[in-house]
Amino acid sequence: MTTTAGLDLSGQAEPGDGSAGKVTVPRSVRRGRPKVYTSYAEDQAIWNTPAKRYWTLGLVVLAFAAPFLVAKDITNLLALAAVYAIGGIGLNLLTGYAGQVSLGHAFFVGAGAYTAAVFGGKETKTVIGLGWDMALWLPLSAIIPGCSGCSSRPLPHGYADCIWRH
Prior knowledge:
Elements: H1 40-43, H2 50-69, H3 72-97, H4 105-120, H5 134-152, H6 159-165
Helix pairs in contact: 4-5
């Protein structure tokens, strides 16, 4: 076994030093990534560090407290930013991790925006609007596109039989 002293620039053992086998790398050199993930479950974990857990918890608490702490127009702006963030993160996951082209993202984000505009907007001569409170139209703007997605997705062979039998 050799150390890094007997290695050439490619990380291979130098010829003629008579050492063939594993190369150990000192801990001081490995400091760039101290926790190496050895399984896909560890690598794909969402909240794998305490900092991620604390920041997520803080942001969720802030999101639930924001309507009580700031004005209505700022709350609407934060809700709009959250909708764009959800659409962007979903598109990033689909195209980045899965490597797929998204044709349905525009429809579902648009359906959620249209639902929010109908249930939360003001009615005029040419615009449909019910003027509901944001506590009602915000969940509906996620539920209605979700239901339309579930109703239009293709079911695997035999899946519908399994649902309707029970």
